Amino acid sequence: MLNQDIIREATRLTRSGQLVEATALLQRMLRGEEERGATAPTTRHPAPAAGIEPPTIEAKANAREMRRPRRTARPQVDLANSIHGLGRGALRRAPPSVADIVPDGARFVEGVYANAAGSRAYRLFIPSGYHGQAIPLVIMLHGCTQSPEDFAAGTRMNFIAEEQTCFVAYPAQRTEANQAKCWNWFRPADQQRDRGEPSLIAGITRQIMRDYSVDPERVYVAGLSAGAAAAAVMGSTYGDLYAAIGIHSGLACGAASDLPSALMAMKQGGGPEAMPGDGPPVPTIVFHGDRDTTVHSKNGTRIVRQSLGESRTKAKVHRGRVPGGHAYTRTVHADSGGRGILEHWEIHGAGHAWSGGSPAGSYTDPDGPDATREMLRFFLEHSLQQRRN
Fold this sequence. Notes:
By secondary structure, this protein is α/β, with parallel strands linked by helices.
C-alpha cells in the first residue's frame, strides 16, 4: 500500500472512531520509511471528523536514550507508546521527595483556575526572598505522564528560581482532557488565543499576576516535549503576555493539525511553515538533542525559523562540552542592537530528555548542559518593555 493510501485509510479509521487501528497503521508506515530513508509526503491530510477525540500524541522514553553509564542515576520512567492505548504503560516510580522539589524556606502552594474551556489545577513556587515586591514569573508546562511535582524535581527550576527570586508555576494537565496528561498541542482548537488550553494557561498566568506581586514585564513560559509544543503555542498566541519562551525537545506552533501530521512532524520534522508575525519576534531559547528519536531534532531548526520570521539577525556559533558529558553547539541570533533574541542549543548525543536535569524526575539527562539555568538566564535578559522599544 502506498503512503498516500495508508494516510487515507488511517483518516477513514480515525473518522470511524477506530483510533488505535489508525495509529498502528501510521506507525507501521513511519517505521518502514525510516528503514528506507524515505521522506514525508507533502500531501495535506484531512482533519478528523468533528466530535472525534484524537488519540494522545507525545513522547515515549527510549531506554537507550535515557541510560547514562557515566553517572549513577535513579531508573528512568519507561513511558508508554507515543499514542495512548498502544504499548506498555509507564512504570510506577516513587514520587519525588519534598527536598527534591522545594528549597528550605520556600513554599509550593496549590491553586485552581477555571473558565469556559474548563479548569486546571497548578502548583506555584514562592521563593523565600519574596516579601511583596514585584518579581518575575515563569510558567512551566510538563510533558506526558508527568505531574507538576515530577517536572519540578526533574528540572530543578525551583532551586534556580530561589537563587534569582522568581515565581514558578506548573499547570497540571487533566487525565479527562488527555489520558496520558499530555497538553493537546496538535489540535487546532488548542492552538488559538482565548480558546481551549491556551486560554487556561493564560488564565492561570493572569490569576497569579492578580494574586501576587508579579513584574508584568517579566513573565515567561517554557515546557518539555508536549509541554514545549504548548509553550510554542503560547508564545505565538500570547506574545503580549510572555516576554520570552523556552522550548525543550518540542515542536513549532502549527506543526500539526491532526493525527497523521502530528506523527509526521514528530518523526520527521515536517509541518507547514508559519507566517511571520507583525512586530518583533518573541525571544526564544530552544534545546534539542540530536539523537532524539521521539521528536526529531529538525523540529528545533523549524522553531528557529518560525521564531525569527523575516527578522534580520546576526548569528554567532559557540561550541562546548560539559565535563564528562555531552558536547553541544549553541547558536545565538542577535538583533541590530546586538541583543541575543534567539538561542538554539543542539546537544550532541542526547535523546528525548531535559538537559542537565536531576534523576529525581522523569525525562532527564544529567550529562547535558544545564538547560534550567541557561533558560532562566535567557529569560531574565528579556522584558516586554525591551520588545516595545
